[in-house]
Design brief:
The protein is α/β, with parallel strands linked by helices. A 6-stranded mixed beta sheet has the order 6-7-8-3-9-10. A 4-stranded antiparallel beta sheet has the order 2-1-4-5, covered by helices on one side. A hairpin with a 2-residue loop joins strand 1 and strand 2. Helix 4 packs parallel to helix 6. The N terminus is likely disordered.
Length: 240
């Protein structure tokens, strides 16, 4: 099977045509990262195309979350470049980088990190408010997203009144509010039971199919890795 140079093979049979027509939206090249004397990433490169769901797997300490944080501009590499839609993100000053992150990257974490004093609708709306968007338009989109994710009935509830699965769906809606280029998820189902985890994984694929969202997911969930378009394996700070 023929593969393009930036694609890890073998591909699932249906993915070949998918790759051919999809544009590259992420290209991280030769990423190194150390904390003191501890070398975490040792020259990692990764490319992702629009609408792709990529899982990153490996043992604890392999460097998965560090790589995800660098792609998400939450941390900076010691060496290497990260291009998102052709933008060299670490060439931006702090203000422009913060704005870029808010507008182009959505985050979903293992723990939802919803603000407990705010309702679901308010939590989802906050990134839009930070971006300076019109309040009425942001709240309208937030309600639409809550409806798509099946939690519109929880719009006026605070996190403590919601189940774990509902809280995580609200956090996904929050990640989507600014229509990001990339959604980065770090063990998003790690705190859910198997039923809610399966429902969340299916939600990611539904969002990819309906909204052309792109996901990079760090996971220990073997089923999610199996059904992803591509799985990247990491060990000792390297992709293998």
């Amino acid at each position: 099977l023929f593969c393009f140079p930036d694609i890890i093979c073998p591909l699932q049979p249906h993915v070949f045509v998918f790759y051919y027509f999809r544009i590259m939206i992420l290209k991280a090249n030769n990423i190194f990262k150390s904390y003191g004397d501890l070398e975490i990433l040792k020259g990692v490169s990764i490319s992702v195309r629009k609408g792709e769901i990529v899982s990153i797997v490996g043992a604890s300490g392999a460097g998965k979350s560090t790589l995800l944080h660098i792609i998400g501009t939450l941390d900076k590499p010691d060496q290497g470049t990260v291009l998102i839609e052709g933008e060299d993100v670490f060439a931006l000053n702090e203000k422009k980088l913060s704005d870029f992150r808010n507008q182009h990257i959505g985050f979903v974490f293992q723990f939802h990190h919803l603000l407990p004093e705010f309702t679901a609708l308010e939590n989802v709306s906050i990134p839009g408010f930070i971006a300076g968007q019109d309040k009425k338009n942001v709240e309208k989109r937030a309600m639409e997203l809550l409806d798509i994710l099946g939690v519109a009935h929880r719009a006026n509830h605070k996190p403590a009144a919601m189940s774990g699965g509902e809280q995580q769906r609200v956090s996904v809606a929050r990640a989507l509010i600014n229509n990001p280029t990339l959604i980065l998820a770090d063990e998003p189902s790690g705190n859910l039971d198997s039923e809610n985890a399966t429902a969340l994984h299916q939600l990611f694929f539904d969002l990819r199919d309906k909204m052309q969202q792109t996901f990079i997911i760090v996971t220990h969930n073997e089923e999610l890795a199996r059904i992803s378009d591509r799985t990247i394996h990491m060990r000792d700070g390297l992709i293998y």
